């Protein structure tokens, strides 16, 4: 049984579309990252999964419980930890009182251990907390009853870089224990570090579900070559070579020497083809240096986020499949 399953899940706020026909499943023990630009529908999915709002159409289950079956969902939620994007607390009470209250309500088997990692000033009223301290308190509250599934909305927002690392390390350790995570994020480096799979949502639609590695594979490599000669226009007109730039210019210069600096020419492009034809082509030149690197994850995601880039994604993916 998947930890989370949605089937054609749709939520409208009046005429405003939150999400449309969204189907996905998160397996037990998986860390699933949910990505998308502002207003894409991430929080809408999370709030619907937690039963804070009803779907307009479609269905969803959390740990087997139908989100529209209040009783079943209430039972399932005792095994779920929720970390909201902007934790709302009664501002007058202290962090310690909140911990006690949550402990009485849901149980507390882990707060001591968690407070060693995340240490908000427990004896101060929450209203006096900094953004980072609020987030740390919310983390302790979400994990203290040792849930099987964590649903988190931008969990590292407000944490300083050191605490962000602590949190990601903690997620990795929890994953080893078999805990399932479903979380929304804008921070691609953290997604890279902890996620087994990612789903990308745009304009309320799920546009991609994939492993991070497969996304990167399909997005091709960044190739940068330094040549001792001046290649002709079209020298890198290879199947699978995109956005070829010479000496930092996107246009091949008519005056071939103009693209040369210090007697060498630098050519860079994104490459989704096979290596053999590329290497053969490179060896026709006076090859001085060659770097083939992963495309930056930001670029990969921008292709999915940017509506205008849709055609580019389709073209690059089709070529990668052909290659
Ligand atoms: N309570 C609401 N009433 C009306 N419209 C809403 C409501 N909540 C969300 N929306 C709309 O639904 C769409 C999806 O919003 P949602 O908050 O789910 O996006 P998000 O991906 O979480 O965005 P962000 O990254 O900015 O948090 C947006 O157009 C938003 O304006």
From TrEMBL:
GO molecular function list: ATP binding
Segments forming domain ABC transporter: 4-228
A Pfam family this chain is assigned to: ABC_tran
Protein name: ABC transporter ATP-binding protein
Top-level taxonomy: Archaea, Methanobacteriati, Methanobacteriota, Stenosarchaea group, Halobacteria
InterPro entries: AAA+_ATPase, ABC_transporter-like_ATP-bd, ABC_transporter_ATP-binding, P-loop_NTPase
Family label: Belongs to the ABC transporter superfamily.
UniProtKB keywords: ATP-binding, Nucleotide-binding, Transport
PROSITE patterns: ABC_TRANSPORTER_2 (PS50893)
């Amino acid at each position: 049984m998947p930890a989370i399953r949605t089937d054609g899940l749709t939520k409208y706020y009046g005429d405003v579309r939150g999400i449309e026909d969204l189907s996905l499943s998160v397996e037990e023990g998986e860390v699933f990252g949910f990505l998308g630009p502002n207003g894409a529908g991430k929080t809408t999915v999370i709030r619907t999964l937690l039963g804070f709002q009803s779907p307009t159409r479609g269905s969803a289950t959390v740990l087997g419980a139908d989100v529209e079956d209040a009783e079943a969902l209430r039972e399932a939620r005792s095994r779920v930890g929720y970390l909201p994007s902007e934790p709302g607390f009664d501002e007058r009470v202290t962090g310690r009182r909140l911990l006690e209250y949550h402990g009485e309500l849901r149980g507390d088997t882990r707060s001591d251990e968690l407070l060693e990692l995340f240490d908000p000033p427990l004896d101060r009223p929450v209203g006096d907390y900094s953004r980072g301290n609020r987030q740390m308190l919310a983390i302790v509250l979400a994990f203290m009853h040792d849930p099987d599934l964590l649903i988190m909305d931008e969990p590292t927002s407000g944490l300083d870089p050191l605490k962000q690392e602590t949190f990601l390390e903690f997620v990795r350790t929890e994953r080893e224990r078999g805990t399932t995570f479903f979380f929304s994020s804008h921070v691609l480096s953290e997604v890279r570090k902890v996620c087994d799979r990612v789903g990308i949502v745009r304009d309320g639609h799920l546009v991609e579900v994939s492993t991070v590695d497969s996304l990167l594979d399909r997005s091709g490599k960044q190739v940068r070559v330094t040549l001792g000669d001046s290649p002709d226009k079209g020298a890198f007109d290879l199947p699978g070579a995109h956005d070829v730039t010479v000496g930092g210019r996107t246009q091949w210069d008519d005056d071939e020497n103009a693209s040369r600096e210090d007697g060498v020419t630098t050519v860079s492009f994104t490459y989704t083809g096979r290596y053999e034809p590329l290497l053969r082509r490179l060896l026709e030149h006076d090859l001085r240096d060659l770097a083939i690197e992963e495309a930056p994850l930001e670029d990969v995601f921008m292709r999915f986020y940017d509506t205008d880039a849709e055609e580019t994604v389709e073209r690059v993916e089709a070529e990668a499949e052909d290659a």
